[in-house]
Amino acid sequence: MPTPSSELPLTEQVLHRVDERGVAWITLNRGDVKNAISPDQRDRVIELLGDASADLGIRVVVLGATGDAFCTGADLRASRPPAPRPDDAPARGVGEVAKMIRDGAQRLVAAVLDCEKPVIAAVGGTAAGIGAHLALAADLVVAAEGVRFIEVFVRRGLVPDGGGAYLLPRMVGVQKAKELLFFGDDLSATDAAALGLVNRVVPADELDAAVDEWAARLAVGPTRALALTKWLVNRSLDTDRATAFHEEAVAQELNMGTVDANEGVAAFVERRSPTYRGW
Length: 279
Hints:
Blueprint: H1 10-13, E1 14-18, E2 23-28, H2 39-54, E3 60-65, E4 69-71, H3 96-114, E5 119-123, E6 126-128, H4 130-136, E7 140-144, E8 148-150, H5 164-172, H6 174-183, E9 187-188, H7 189-195, E10 200-202, H8 207-219, H9 223-236, H10 241-255, H11 259-269
Parallel strand pairs: 2-3, 3-5, 4-6, 5-7, 6-8, 7-10
Antiparallel strand pairs: 1-2, 8-9
């Protein structure tokens, strides 16, 4: 009998490597449970995304998974011991669910949105619940043909978490977001691409190559300019025009102090290809 993935060391439940190009690969590795994500896995992914933001040697992050599912949501069988409480306290205190969501699903999605490096989601199988939001929070989504995205919450009588009601209206509009969230129907990768939720749909056997191609291009790009561009775009739908224009000017000021911005201008003047360092 194979060892259940829940009994593997955390370093095997979430695989991590950084290649010679500065591409960080973060891979969920619990295929036996369709990569339902446990609290320990979630915290490890958050930690790795934070490390990627801080590490000047990392230029891009790829989120992926082994097996036939990207992530099918939270692993409801995995739990942590409850916090100490008085003997006569209720099993669930007021505010505890909200805290669990803030510290869990919301923190995971925020870690993707706030990562200062481009994040590519390599979706090779079903992405459901928080798994769908984990993918959709990425800057670029590449999916294999046949993949399904599912807002599964309504099927369980639950309210969407992990920022689903924040992300979807901004990506597909209010009416379509409500349709997806109200019915929880399977959404094919092709239909997701038509809605703008997915950037590329490729045959399953071409997924790794397609993701690697984009990762390679981003890894030689002007990393700080990309980080500031990501910040501006993510902020744009939550700010008025005056604020957006102010933040754009600030981003320009910050970026012009980077080595890469000066290299880009010099390369243009000298009619050569730039060599960006990532800072």
